[in-house]
Amino acid sequence: MAFWVRLPCFPLFLWLTLCIITRSAAQGGQKPLQEAAQRPNIVFILTDDQDLHMDSLSYMPFLKEHMIDRGLSFRRHYCTVALCCPSRVSMWTGKAAHNTNVTDINPPYGGYPKFVSQGFNGNYLPTWLQQAGYGTYYVGKLFNAQTVKNYNSPHAAGWTGNDFLLDPYTYRYLNATFQRNHDEPVSYEGHYATDVLAGKAHGFLDDALEALQSEGTPFFLTVAPTAPHSDVNIKRDLINGSFTEHSNVQSPPVPAERHQHLFANAVVPRTPNFNPDKPGGASWISRLPKQNQSNVDFNDHFYRSRLRSLQAVDELVHSLVTRLTDAGVLDNTYIVYSTDNGYTIGQHRRQPGKQCAFEQDINVPFIIRGPGVPEAALTDIVTSHTDIAPTFLSLTGASAPADFVLDGQPLPLTRPMLENTVPAGVEAGDSSSTSRSEHVNVEMWGIIMSEGKFGSVLYPNHTYKALRLVGSEYSFLYTVWCSGEHELYDMKVDPFQLNNLYNTDWSARAMLRRGYGEDLINYSIPLAHTVSSSNASIHEEESDTGRYDAGPTLSQLLPRLDALLLVLKSCVGRQCTHPWESLFPGGGVLNLADALNSVFDDFFDTRLEKVSFDRCEKGYIVNSEGPMWDDTYAYGMVDEVAAE
Fold first, then answer.
1. Tell me, what's the pLDDT at 549?
2. Prediction pTM value
3. According to the lineage, what is the superkingdom (predicted)?
């Protein structure tokens, strides 16, 4: 049985401020750290459930000052599973969820015990960085179902220093439990969790800076607060296979006392898909009732609570950048800001939550600053969480074991790389240009439970495969549910995903927008508004310019999307980043635009299996996943003639 210590109450924010002031004063005469270590340092700030499409970034002035205005923002960055633990495992391993088999937040299909049983503890990013000579540090939430009872069975490997949040107290803003290195857990009842975390982060940063100065050891520090996640009262230490509506109570996040008065008039942005008059989507979403005013008012309160909870995170960003600056190492440090998945409040009549393939759930913040990274820059190059581990490996010169297959690829970060890297389907400017993927494979298994006062309903059979496709002339979301339902949204003309084209006339034509791709990289447009901005979303499709022309019929388009999804649902390695190579091993087809050539109609219409499920399952069970990709399906393996 684990024991943990309760600390006496104390205004921790004041304590943290005092520590930083005292530390700065004591080091006032200190010279900047030596620049002997040529390899860069990395600070990774990872929030929990932060949205991109409800303006949360606009309420973080320090983030804007230190990251958005001084770095590169990826507007087309996606998580591949819109759920905490599976998403985080994909980040740390560079593998898609169907290759980690960590697909839930609790056992038997997910959580920390599943991560361990799959053999990743000791063979994931921090262990590879340590092998490359990096000091590695972690503060905050690592995985769900890492608890006060199983934290040492075994300890999470790979960290020079760690202080993990533990269930069942991970999401308690005023009653968090942390566990440092191999020590016993400590309860911080009465202290504000994000401020506790900030103090611990600065402690590890000081350790890392000392090792850098004395031994030349570069560092990798992850700081993972739970804000703006809801405050969750988990009823048991470990929920194993028996999750119900009564397993936990999810309430609005709790802001620090100093922030409780902020943003009194803020409401969820009233986009066209907010609490619409007509239901949409598929499965349980299509049966949701329109929210009444009491429901809407509570959800606006939930939204304000999220914004307020992020203010302590914003202060943390400022204090970390200040410390790096004072130490003289900021210019050789990459700082990355992201989150595990997006979030929804009210869109499509949904209660607060995530787990769907809608843009609000999967399109997430990803901002980076550091050596060679352009400032105040935006890019629409398509990237995903499976690219994060390969990117950190590339920046540090570390590598995964030869037999460990990564499903992502490093992000382009410097101005030359960005200017010579284009999404698939955009004509390259010269022979040095490198084509990036135009797709993201999104997947989900099991059940879904929304959050808040009106959302404690458990919906089963929330299993689907989805394809998010962003090319030079098109933008689609295609989803196949385990129930047999399908969704197709043309997001150039329907950015709020209100019109499911799958249930319309298949002789109709999708719209292709001409002129897209001219502003894929922009070095001046700000990503976020100031705090006083309106509730306009920071990035919506309808802001694009260009004319729309008739494209393929849906009967031509859908078989292509099915084929691409068939490859991606079980892809490994390069198949995940270059799936068209699997379909066309002879070359000549690099993107959907190429595949729409009518010479391939028979191949797509009659030679390939359609994506479907044999059964709805709570986890990844291959025998229930329906047809899988087989290389014998590839074009040219049967009687097709080569395309002219």
1. 60
2. 0.90
3. Eukaryota
